[in-house]
């Protein structure tokens, strides 16, 4: 019985000891910890002393110089000095004073040994193909939980499936072995997360001997043995039942709870071989069966599950204060399975007092006396655990002590209520009476209620209730009384009495003005000394009485010049209200420098994943100076704060001390789950993993659960550490429901959300029907078709591809553009999905109407005239009817138009042009449907008279310029023509001295190169003619490739041959393969004075030199 502190100020009452804190049931000495505290704290009057027992024997921590004893406490600290095993054992604390002794729960101090597999070698296990086989793990004992993995020497997981799986005992079971199971490095790894230890068993070799006669056989169980077995489950734990069968084909396992079908909440693990029923499920106990079957037969095993539970208090003994001579009843009711054994102790000593009556779970103390005051212990135990509780029994008589102050004043407003208190402590309990104004009559009536704690409540106060009230407490030991005064007032507004009001000023969104030297109050008036712009804001005055209040507000605007700056760093940043997953951060704002702080930004830094990196955690309004921070588990945090105003962000505060949160289960599950099917019988599940700080503790894994949506199916589950999983052997393109749940060593994350996806797609198996084509114009057609049925798509419809000469994507119809006019096409339509194209439809033939083509254009430039020459379009796209020529001065000038009606015209002479002026020409070829694309040409008239070229022949060259140096990324078609008098506007270059010298040098260099080649041949060096010809095809021996084309004509009147064939590779063998582009820059210049010959010679020289160098480096 805890005696209130107020009582101790009135009377020196002694109190039994009470244990207030102790260590948990087990203290594990982890190697990483520096020390281990075995805690025991207690209170009482007089102050309690402490003693300990270890394994039932007296133990005095103060006698061991290595142990550190806490003053005024029972706690002692064991240092981690490497010699901890001598302290291993079970401890119990006794807190005592002259009145009695309180006893703690048992505290186990455990020093875990490093678990190890025995050193042993294994001969290879020889197994005949098709036979069952078990690889034993036999993990060592250690601190749970235990996690077992089967891996190779290269830390690759052994793949497990219906045929190969790991049992609950860690053994690896093979329903039947196959040749691929042969390997020399089967390794069993045992992980003990609490002590951060992983141990490995020696590698085992399995040799599978092949056979030509593998017979199918019906199932039999590898585990558990026999037909029946019993399982004992401790209440609250998950039930796990296991059946692993062998047979060919691999048996499937089914589960059932006899008489109930399947439990409401269950899940299957290990490919359906393990049934898991959550511990919170009702009626877990009962009879279960597993059935393993294949086409040849089945086998059944029956389980009888019994649920037991550790001791638990149904009725816990309560501390009591009882009067002398009364009977004291102490009840301790306990449940558990097996039924716990209950023992009673008094002050830590087994109960032997003949005066007490023990009846089942109850002790009765008859005619209790002060000598019977003691601490009574009730302890219950069974094979699953032990619990103990203390009950302080005080037997004494005490006159009433009223703990409420005498002369207390209360104020109330009419028509409201009031509570007047009278707190009393006494033994035996007192009877409470209330009276008014020294009257002997008690206060009674429907408006008055006296509560069990002695308080008087008046409902719907009236003006006449004003007065003095007396509380009278009375028991066998005496009487005590206190007075209280009640004042009843009218409502606040319009009040004309002489009530006293308190006035509180608030500013900056109602922050209280406290301890600011520049502010002071005088008769309710707020004075501000040395006003600055930071004082700007809204102020309000709150006038209060004990019973009501009123508010008035005003806004202060400060005028004048001031300097703005970012806020100073907050000061005195401290942590308080520390909890496992949250902490409260407080700070004092710094100077705001004439600009109000709009917000505070709280940053954190953790020392595990990104040490030294400060990141934003939370933002709070500028009128706050504290915040509660929600934290992740298993993280060492530091915090700092900076302020922000209209100028910007200020510097951060000094960081707090490091705050370490304990591990916890994950708070969230993975997001952005993507389900894809790259192959017809697979489903790829990918998700965004939790960030490291969201792990909340070590051992993060993901449980992948999936089942078919279109049929009734069971959930299948797999636990993986990566953030992807592949489901194999799925039907093609069927819907699945998928859940991803995170877990770590501390437990599971929240219940995951379910998403829907589809398994892998396959090629569509049907082609579109009823394909029809509607010609829109000369280059566009509209195509329609009947859609492919959904069951033939085998995937999500991506669209339809229409294939004339190019591909396009549509839905149920589409428009094809970019066709060549006046042509005949054959068109097919096919559907496609994520896997690829389906079969094509029947071909549909159609023709495009006529359309305009485009010619090639060159110019012969004179002083005041220009002669234009062109070739007919390679693709007239119909029957040519003429040309449309337009020209104008490039800078400014009207657009002139010339209609040329004769289709065989290929020249046009324009006169009366401005000398030395640039003109732009546009030429279009026309058919009956209109004119085609524009061909542009720009040319400048000469300043002098025309100078004829030195050539007397017409060169017409069409070549495709490609990237010669691999740096260029684009290629473009370019056409050039060279004819007499049309090659260049440059004159007189052949008479220049520098040109004559250049030609001589090039000729001399060419001669040197030829001599070097000749000498090299005579010395026996091999010259790769084949390679040379492959690089630069010869006119006589090689057909033109599709990159270059050049032809020679003796007659100016011969038209150019069409170059359409060069685009498709169908060129004539007699065409020259030697392109002018190989010898000049991309924009080749052809000068009438012979400069083109110089360019040609220079390029020839460079190419020959490069070839000789390459040949010289090649061994003979």
Automatic annotation (TrEMBL):
<feature type="domain" description="Fibronectin type-III">
    <location>
        <begin position="851"/>
        <end position="947"/>
    </location>
</feature>
<dbReference type="InterPro" id="IPR013783">
    <property type="entry name" value="Ig-like_fold"/>
</dbReference>
<dbReference type="InterPro" id="IPR003598">
    <property type="entry name" value="Ig_sub2"/>
</dbReference>
<feature type="region of interest" description="Disordered">
    <location>
        <begin position="1055"/>
        <end position="1083"/>
    </location>
</feature>
<feature type="domain" description="Ig-like">
    <location>
        <begin position="219"/>
        <end position="306"/>
    </location>
</feature>
<dbReference type="GO" id="GO:0007420">
    <property type="term" value="P:brain development"/>
</dbReference>
<dbReference type="InterPro" id="IPR036179">
    <property type="entry name" value="Ig-like_dom_sf"/>
</dbReference>
<dbReference type="GO" id="GO:0030424">
    <property type="term" value="C:axon"/>
</dbReference>
<comment type="similarity">
    <text>Belongs to the immunoglobulin superfamily. L1/neurofascin/NgCAM family.</text>
</comment>
<dbReference type="InterPro" id="IPR003961">
    <property type="entry name" value="FN3_dom"/>
</dbReference>
<dbReference type="Pfam" id="PF00041">
    <property type="entry name" value="fn3"/>
</dbReference>
<keyword id="KW-0472">Membrane</keyword>
<dbReference type="Pfam" id="PF13927">
    <property type="entry name" value="Ig_3"/>
</dbReference>
<dbReference type="Pfam" id="PF13882">
    <property type="entry name" value="Bravo_FIGEY"/>
</dbReference>
<keyword id="KW-0677">Repeat</keyword>
<feature type="domain" description="Ig-like">
    <location>
        <begin position="311"/>
        <end position="394"/>
    </location>
</feature>
<dbReference type="InterPro" id="IPR036116">
    <property type="entry name" value="FN3_sf"/>
</dbReference>
<keyword id="KW-0812">Transmembrane</keyword>
<feature type="domain" description="Ig-like">
    <location>
        <begin position="17"/>
        <end position="104"/>
    </location>
</feature>
<feature type="domain" description="Fibronectin type-III">
    <location>
        <begin position="569"/>
        <end position="664"/>
    </location>
</feature>
<keyword id="KW-1015">Disulfide bond</keyword>
<protein>
    <submittedName>
        <fullName>Cell adhesion molecule L1-like b</fullName>
    </submittedName>
</protein>
<dbReference type="GO" id="GO:0098632">
    <property type="term" value="F:cell-cell adhesion mediator activity"/>
</dbReference>
<dbReference type="GO" id="GO:0007411">
    <property type="term" value="P:axon guidance"/>
</dbReference>
<dbReference type="InterPro" id="IPR007110">
    <property type="entry name" value="Ig-like_dom"/>
</dbReference>
<feature type="domain" description="Ig-like">
    <location>
        <begin position="400"/>
        <end position="487"/>
    </location>
</feature>
<feature type="domain" description="Ig-like">
    <location>
        <begin position="112"/>
        <end position="205"/>
    </location>
</feature>
<keyword id="KW-0393">Immunoglobulin domain</keyword>
<dbReference type="GO" id="GO:0005886">
    <property type="term" value="C:plasma membrane"/>
</dbReference>
<feature type="transmembrane region" description="Helical">
    <location>
        <begin position="994"/>
        <end position="1015"/>
    </location>
</feature>
<feature type="domain" description="Fibronectin type-III">
    <location>
        <begin position="669"/>
        <end position="762"/>
    </location>
</feature>
<dbReference type="InterPro" id="IPR026966">
    <property type="entry name" value="Neurofascin/L1/NrCAM_C"/>
</dbReference>
<dbReference type="InterPro" id="IPR003599">
    <property type="entry name" value="Ig_sub"/>
</dbReference>
<keyword id="KW-1133">Transmembrane helix</keyword>
